């Protein structure tokens, strides 16, 4: 009996000890509180505030932050990109109910503009891909939207001339930044672009879009290139100090011209394609013979020649340097002789000129015009006096945010025949912007979102129904403009 009583006492003592341990462990777990949540609850409240209301509000705010983080995490795990998520959270909650059934976002009709009668007519989505390296995967989609103000608050009615129905095609085989791109002369389907790895890619954007030729030969960045008038040849410049001439039908380099400095820009003569004009880092413009590769003439400037363009007659060359100066140069179409005529400084700051583009006519100027863009974000629009050897008169200008990269701009030729003077340019916030230089206070009239990295190159095709843009990740997007009557 005594042995049995001793056994019961020991067992009961163990049971009591176990219960106490479990209770202590449970109380320790209950006492573990998230420090952020605890600090949120300890925030002081005013004397006249309701304590219960303040506590509930703080709890909801804390859970809201946590739910937002989990929401972004789930979105990222499903393969969505930042642009798609941003557009998703900006949409009104009743967007689906406001859309008609025929305008729901489906693979067949996504990328269409909403009807103007809808209060959400400024929004549209496009079937695209968020991952630039998996752009052809059907399960990756990204969205973009069009806006017509600088503050991301678009107006309700968009000018139909700026309506884009989506992405026509995407090229993503390039493994380096695409720094320069152009459509062929008088061509709506041939597109070429050069990259920082020294490659040149020639594509067709007609159905089905495809890569035609991959031109490899430069050992460093392709800085510029130009098509011949018949689109049979391409002349390119590079940081490897060479000028190369490519025959597109065979996809081979037929001539290499070696230089001492880096070659920065190049143009075929518009009338005599046997002349090639190239600007270099040695403050020179050099005229080459296309057939022989020999130097015909040289002209020295005050700084590195970073960009250039011919007028339509071939008698004038407009070039910009690394100090922000624009030069008008006379050229003899028969002998290739160069003579400097005029000089114009674009601004007070010395910033490299990234774009020089000539156009033969503008309604605003009533004659030929010139567009320049500098790396500090200055867009300038000049009228050209051809009878005074290309004398430039500043008509209007626009100051954008300074850029780190060499970002280019372009005229909108057909659009500019309607109302104002419209320019399209890339940006470092990964958007493509449209500006009206005649409205400096509300210059931004549209923007396209789809890139994930800074957009450095833009180019229109001949019919201006397709716009190509390129970014630092090597992705080229061809946007399709809506048909207008």
TrEMBL record:
Residues 140-151 have a biased composition (Low complexity). The keyword Transcription does not apply. WD repeats lie at residues 215-256, 448-485. GO terms for molecular function: promoter-specific chromatin binding. The keyword Repeat applies. Residues 1-30, 134-155 are annotated as: Disordered. InterPro entries: WD40/YVTN_repeat-like_dom_sf (IPR015943), WD40_repeat_CS (IPR019775), WD40_repeat_dom_sf (IPR036322), WD40_rpt (IPR001680), WD_repeat-ST_regulator (IPR051350). It holds the Pfam family WD40. Keywords: Repeat, WD repeat. GO terms for cellular component: nucleus. SUPFAM superfamilies: WD40 repeat-like. It comes from the Eukaryota. This is WD repeat-containing protein 13. The lineage of its organism: Eukaryota, Viridiplantae, Streptophyta, Embryophyta, Tracheophyta.
């Amino acid at each position: 009996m005594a042995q049995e009583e001793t056994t019961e006492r020991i067992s009961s003592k163990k049971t009591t000890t176990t219960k106490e341990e479990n209770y202590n462990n449970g109380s320790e777990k209950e006492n573990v509180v998230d420090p952020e949540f605890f600090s949120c609850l300890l925030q002081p409240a005013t004397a006249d505030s309701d304590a219960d209301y303040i506590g509930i509000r703080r709890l909801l705010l804390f859970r809201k932050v946590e739910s937002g983080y989990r929401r972004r995490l789930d979105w990222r795990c499903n393969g969505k990109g930042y642009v798609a998520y941003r557009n998703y959270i900006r949409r009104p909650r009743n967007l689906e109910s406001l859309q008609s059934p025929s305008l729901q976002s489906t693979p067949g009709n996504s990328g269409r503009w909403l009807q103007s009668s809808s209060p959400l007519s400024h929004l549209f989505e496009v079937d695209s891909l968020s991952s630039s390296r998996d752009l052809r995967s059907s399960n990756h989609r990204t969205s973009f939207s069009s806006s017509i103000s600088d503050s991301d608050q678009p107006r309700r009615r968009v000018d139909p001339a700026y309506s884009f129905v989506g992405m026509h095609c995407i090229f993503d085989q390039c493994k380096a930044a695409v720094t320069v791109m152009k459509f062929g002369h008088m061509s709506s389907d041939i597109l070429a672009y050069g990259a920082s790895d020294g490659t040149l890619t020639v594509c067709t954007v007609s159905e089905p879009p495809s890569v035609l030729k991959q031109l490899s030969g430069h050992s460093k960045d392709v800085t510029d290139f130009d098509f011949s008038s018949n689109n049979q040849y391409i002349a390119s410049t590079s940081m490897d100090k060479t000028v190369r001439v490519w025959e597109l039908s065979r996809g081979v380099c037929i001539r290499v011209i070696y230089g001492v400095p880096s070659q920065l820009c190049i143009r075929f003569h518009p009338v005599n394609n046997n002349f090639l004009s190239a600007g270099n880092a040695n403050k020179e413009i050099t005229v080459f013979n296309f057939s022989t590769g020999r130097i015909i003439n040289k002209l020295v400037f005050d700084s590195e020649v970073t960009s250039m363009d011919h007028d339509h007659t071939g008698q004038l060359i407009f070039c910009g340097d690394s100090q922000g100066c624009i030069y008008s140069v006379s050229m003899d179409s028969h002998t290739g002789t160069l003579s400097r005529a005029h000089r114009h400084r674009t601004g007070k700051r010395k910033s490299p000129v990234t774009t020089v583009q000539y156009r033969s006519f503008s309604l605003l100027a009533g004659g030929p015009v010139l567009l320049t863009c500098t790396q500090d974000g200055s867009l300038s629009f000049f009228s050209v006096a051809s009878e005074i050897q290309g004398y430039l008169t500043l008509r209007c200008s626009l100051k954008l945010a300074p850029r780190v990269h060499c970002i280019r701009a372009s005229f909108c030729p057909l659009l500019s025949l309607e109302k104002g003077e419209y320019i399209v340019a890339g940006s470092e916030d990964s958007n493509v912007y449209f500006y009206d230089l005649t409205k400096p206070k509300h210059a931004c009239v549209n923007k396209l979102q789809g890139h994930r990295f800074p957009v450095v190159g833009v180019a229109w095709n001949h019919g201006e129904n397709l716009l190509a843009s390129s970014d630092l990740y090597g992705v080229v997007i061809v946007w399709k403009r809506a048909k207008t009557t």
